[in-house]
């Protein structure tokens, strides 16, 4: 058996999230259907994490085990030919059996894109969060400084979260970038709670509108209460951008 690591991207618009669900079209279902056509049996994939309905990925990572002898270019070509047009294979690597797409994650980067303009762009409605009110990016940037570091992010976790254990996470970088009429919130961390990035985005949007102050972030964190933070921003603006691993696992040379 050979363990295979794939970096994939997908347009989340027409998926009911990543994870397999009964009678629903999901990313996992489509990838496993492609693998089943190659193997004539079910091959389970393991992702770095799940994404919700409507959320996109530029750098999702999965792994699976296969008895087939195929080189990396062959895997990419074969899977590309079998997958629908809203899933793309970016990269394929053969890795050690000890590599795990979920448990070996070192860092994840998410980006949340806001279209901040007076008129809605209907052609981008599935790929951005539309906010017509002028957002003060300087205030949003100031608020980002309070989010960096290691904190208990209970206030930024969905009330529906079923996570076991504490909700302490480390954010290495949080910033807001101006790109034309868009504002991109970039968040890099060791791990994320359910809806954490979307709640952060919703809170920063309220700060950008002047409904909250940048320094309000600190008591929100300290309060450990979901009701203290802003609304959960819509899924369309969220992208799983990049997943980082210990390179010892992924730069293996095979004959």
Automatic annotation (TrEMBL):
Active-site residue numbers: 52
User: What InterPro entries does the entry give?
Assistant: PsdUridine_synth_cat_dom_sf, PsdUridine_synth_TruA, PsdUridine_synth_TruA_a/b_dom, PsdUridine_synth_TruA_C, TruA/RsuA/RluB/E/F_N
User: What are the EC numbers?
Assistant: 5.4.99.12
| HAMAP family xref list | TruA (MF_00171)
Q: What family does the entry list? A: Belongs to the tRNA pseudouridine synthase TruA family.
Q: How does it assemble?
A: Homodimer.
Q: What's this protein's name?
A: tRNA pseudouridine synthase A
Q: Which organism is it from?
A: Salirhabdus euzebyi
Q: Report which gene this protein is encoded by.
A: truA
